[in-house]
Design brief:
Elements lengths: L6 E6 L8 E6 L3 E5 L8 E6 L3 E7 L6 E7 L9
């Protein structure tokens, strides 16, 4: 799924950060579960917190990256 098409529907956090999980909604009424380090088509999950998920965007062929923060319940394309 592309980061532009992804929405965060739910986050489960633990005392152990490596156990945090985010539910990511995608087109076609699909839901994926992701942990830190998991990859989307154009991004990698960098951090999962109580109300937000931080992604690192992979640039096409460039070595530069940028970060995107998505809030739980905010539909893709909306202001965060």
């Amino acid at each position: 799924v592309l980061i532009a098409e992804a929405g965060i529907t739910m986050v489960v956090v633990s005392k152990e950060p490596s156990m945090n999980v985010a539910a990511i909604s995608a087109p076609g009424n699909k839901t994926y579960f992701a942990r830190v380090g998991d990859e989307l088509f154009d991004a990698v999950v960098k951090e999962i917190q109580m109300q937000t998920v931080r992604f690192t965007i992979k640039s096409g062929g460039e070595r530069t990256t940028r970060e995107v923060v998505r809030r739980v319940g905010v539909a893709s394309g909306e202001n965060k």
